[in-house]
């Protein structure tokens, strides 16, 4: 049976009919109506109705950034949408006449990797999505880990530096401030300021006014020593965090997704190094492997659809 997955992002809503093997049968996308909750809901309903028109679908899964309850029903809080304790599942079910589940977007992407991508050979997996921020997903014993209230696996807000840099969550020293795309740009600027290997970064910054992900990425891929210095620093923080996560979760595999993960082995190498340095009781137990995510753009919709299918299977 097919299922529909909808991924509500900051700029676009992506939707697809997805088959049981994670393949997209058909897809649509529209801009996210920013700042208008009623229009956003209408856009999601219109997309579900359109996708379901010629397909037999078992259920609908919706992914969005935010805290969502463990019953996959209520959005406690969303950073980009004006939702506070929004009963989104109930509202959608009433309008589309199908079973709906709502999940956190990082959880949906992680679940897609676990089912159909880089995590499909293991039972326990941790995924870190390195975009502007750091998203997290945990699969433990073949199940997505949500926590008792649904707000678990926020791995980007694990504290890595006591009294460190201020974070958008209201705390200090979160991994997101040391392991995200935004952190990489800060590090690249610091390398540029220091001169020496930072010369090419400083030159690119002078020419373009500011350093962005694309500039730093292209210098990295060209083997520029300054850009690689910044990436190594980022990788070291991520590797340290992975060592702590291993002590808690003991996954067989760490998967890295998001824009920064396009650096591939250049990112994984410093992660593995720092992991080895910081792993508790190293040498006395098996160690996980570190890989790049495989599904990239479609992970959100594919994961959301599959989580809806899982829910129907378990509640039929
Ligand atoms: Zn934080």
Automatic annotation (TrEMBL):
Keyword Repeat: no
RNA-binding in keyword set: no
The family this protein is said to belong to: Belongs to the ROK (NagC/XylR) family.
PROSITE patterns (UniProt xref): ROK
EC nos: 2.7.1.2
Any single Pfam family the record assigns to this protein: ROK
Recorded superkingdom: Bacteria
Species: Agromyces humatus
Name recorded for this polypeptide: Glucokinase
Keywords: ATP-binding, Kinase, Nucleotide-binding, Transferase
């Amino acid at each position: 049976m097919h299922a529909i997955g909808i991924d509500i992002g900051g700029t676009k809503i992506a939707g697809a009919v997805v088959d049981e093997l994670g393949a997209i049968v058909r897809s649509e996308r529209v801009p996210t109506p920013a700042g208008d909750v009623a229009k956003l809901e209408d856009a999601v309903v219109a997309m579900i109705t359109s996708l379901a028109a010629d397909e037999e679908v078992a259920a609908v899964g919706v992914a969005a950034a935010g805290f969502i309850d463990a019953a996959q029903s209520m959005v406690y809080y969303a950073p980009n949408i004006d939702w506070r304790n929004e009963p989104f599942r109930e509202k959608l079910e009433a309008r589309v006449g199908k079973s709906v589940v709502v999940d956190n977007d990082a959880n949906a992407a992680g679940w897609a990797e676990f089912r159909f991508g880089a995590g499909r050979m293991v039972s326990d997996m941790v995924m870190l999505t390195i975009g502007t921020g750091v998203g997290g997903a945990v699969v433990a014993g073949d199940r997505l880990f949500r926590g008792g209230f649904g707000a678990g696996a926020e791995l980007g807000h694990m504290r890595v530096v006591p009294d460190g840099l201020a974070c958008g969550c209201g705390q200090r020293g979160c991994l997101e401030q040391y392991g995200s795309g935004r952190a990489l740009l800060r590090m690249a600027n610091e390398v540029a300021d220091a001169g020496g290997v930072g010369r090419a970064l400083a030159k690119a910054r002078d020419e373009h006014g500011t350093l962005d992900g694309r500039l730093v990425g292209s210098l990295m891929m060209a083997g520029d020593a300054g850009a690689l210095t910044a990436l190594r620093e980022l990788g070291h923080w991520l590797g340290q965090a992975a060592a702590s996560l291993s002590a808690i979760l003991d996954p067989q595999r760490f998967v890295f997704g998001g824009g920064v993960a396009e650096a591939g082995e250049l990112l994984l190498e410093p992660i593995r190094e720092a992991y080895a340095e910081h792993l508790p009781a190293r040498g006395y137990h098996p160690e996980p492997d570190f890989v790049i995510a495989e599904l990239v753009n479609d992970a959100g919709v594919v994961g959301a659809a599959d989580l809806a299918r899982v829910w129907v299977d378990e509640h039929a």
